[in-house]
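Exercise 7. Predict the joint structure of the components listed below.
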Amino acid sequence: MIPRSGRHGSGGGQGRRGPADLAGYVVSGPVVAEGVRDVLEERRLEVLRAIVEDFVIGNEPVGSKALAERHALGVSPATVRNDMAALEEDGYITQPHTSAGRIPTDKGYRLFVDRLSGVRPLSRAERRAIQNFLEGAVDLDDVVRRSVRLLAQLTRQVAVVQYPSLTTSRVRHIEVVQISPGRLLIVLITDAARVEQRVVDIAEPIDEETVAELRTVLNRALGGRRLADAAEAAAILPDEAGPGLRTQLTALATVLIETLVERQEERIALAGTANLTRSALDFSDSLRAILEALEEQVVLLKLIGWAREPGTVTVRIGRETDVDALRSTAVVATGYGRGAAALGGMGVVGPMRMDYPGTMSAVWAVANYVGELLGAD
Amino acid sequence: MIPRSGRHGSGGGQGRRGPADLAGYVVSGPVVAEGVRDVLEERRLEVLRAIVEDFVIGNEPVGSKALAERHALGVSPATVRNDMAALEEDGYITQPHTSAGRIPTDKGYRLFVDRLSGVRPLSRAERRAIQNFLEGAVDLDDVVRRSVRLLAQLTRQVAVVQYPSLTTSRVRHIEVVQISPGRLLIVLITDAARVEQRVVDIAEPIDEETVAELRTVLNRALGGRRLADAAEAAAILPDEAGPGLRTQLTALATVLIETLVERQEERIALAGTANLTRSALDFSDSLRAILEALEEQVVLLKLIGWAREPGTVTVRIGRETDVDALRSTAVVATGYGRGAAALGGMGVVGPMRMDYPGTMSAVWAVANYVGELLGAD
DNA sequence: ACCTGGCACTCCATCGCCGTGAGTGCCAAG
DNA sequence: CTTGGCACTCACGGCGATGGAGTGCCAGGT
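Solution:
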């Protein structure tokens, strides 16, 4: 991930220091003791870390003097300046304008997240708060709504929580009800206590008995199956049924398959958009574009869909989000669910200038707890 | 609504014109022909309307000269100035600072909405667009989601749609499923094709047969009843049942009553928050406060809950919203549903500087169409 | 009794100017 | 490789002058 080779002293042009310090020479100079190189390297990373941390706190470009003072780097501002020049050369930091301090670039944040940031464990109080807040949930909907609000509150950012996906669960029960002549309501109940409903129009009214028959047939054929299998089973149902039910079953099967296959991961909860205004100045893009993007289900799915592995927190920074409107934001996401099988994803969207350690551990903790909560069913 | 008496020439202090024009005299001067007075009055209202319209379009304080030019008032800027002075005296308009144009006050908007704004009927194309967009909906959830997005798009404002309330509908069917030992999922299906689900913990696992029995009992007792009645019926159920089912029924009834009575109108959909940024400058309050308020279900209910009468569009301006964070916004809302029985409310939230005629007709049209759509079930 | 053109006045917004200070890059010495 | 010194750059904030839109008031006309 981090290009280690060819970095130290790379970048020709304005050589950094010393008259004998010709770029070409140093780049290929393997004479330098490895130890020295590493020490150098390490301090530079330390400088980068200090820059990121200070910038996250203060939201101001950070200069060499302040850095040397606030952090125990053991060197003078001048040395720090040299390191900063090197870091800038390599694209980890940049300055908004000449004679201003430095701020991290996307690449800088990336390095910080990958190698420099520790994980800040949550305090006991925080853990307890999460537990208290979530355990009052009365049903699946409530769990999701509470989680998303909790996450927004903990991180003070925009939170996104995907409803548990149906992929790995099984059909628990299918209910068929005629809600008006010629109109059936079909309710699909799954393992994960998730309920899907759809209205189906059929050619002509049917009597209560037929409805019961349909119910029986469907449950016998699909009950207990994994959803993907159930879709297949539903596809061949009409062919196997007696002629009396054929037309109705065709209509039902069509809708069921849609529900089972296509609309699996559609629903998503969002909270904390107000937090965007707090960091509005960080966004080079307009706040409007970001809000618009966040209203698109597709975009949200894209953001947290790829981070489905429970236990592993993924961070996407800037353009890594692959969403143009979010190119000045960062996304911290993870999956939740029991064991390896993910039920869904959750995460937060915020400015790149973000407290990554804190955010990451908050996301992890909430996902973990929600996973347990749903897994216990 | 408009204080007609004592206005003309009222407000002591700096008399408007003429040395003989003493305030006390004119105020009580009933000699003035009614006709003349009305003409005056009328032109003043016309001026107010012109101010509102121009300000809505241009978002700049509007001055006497521009007004006289753009609108066929038939009088000179000087006369308009006099009218403006009177309007300001009465609190309908105000100026941000001396030597700037005028902008409407809350009171001014209120008068405009009450008496000056016509209803702009939607174009045929708009009607068709609404229809096309909504008729693709596959279920209740989809209807609501589409409506709210449509409304946001049409009005270019924040849209709010309440899910159909359960109040007037009946219990269609109740489904009970054991999702894990000792845990029941209870699904309530209503007339309006709305589905509510809740998880119930019971003391100990029960077998499939008992579940079926519970289902039968519940449906026999509650099926077909109005929700309010059903709650009552559920309350006495445990007493009537045999001892075998007593404990389970008690648990189920408790949860059912909660669902039937307390959580009736909880869900609300929101869209178009991005539109807030467009008018961010209009809000004297911070955008943040508004976004925060809009994330509170309670607040949203308050906003559209009081406008439940289908066919009548209600407008709340500024402090009339009764929500402090929204004191610089306006809310246009109405109810939807078949006939007099409202299923829910919907509306939009935007800046007071809003195209009221257009917004009102859009809200009306969408509510109307959604009402038909759901009424046809 | 009302309308109108004229006039003096107010005050916001804009612009250019300049001093200040933080921060930098480079250099020569350690 | 580090450090103190030094000249340079440039955003930022305060200042005053200018322009112009808009107003209130008045005196004269219908």
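Discussion. Confidence is low (pLDDT under 50) at residues 1-37 of chain B.
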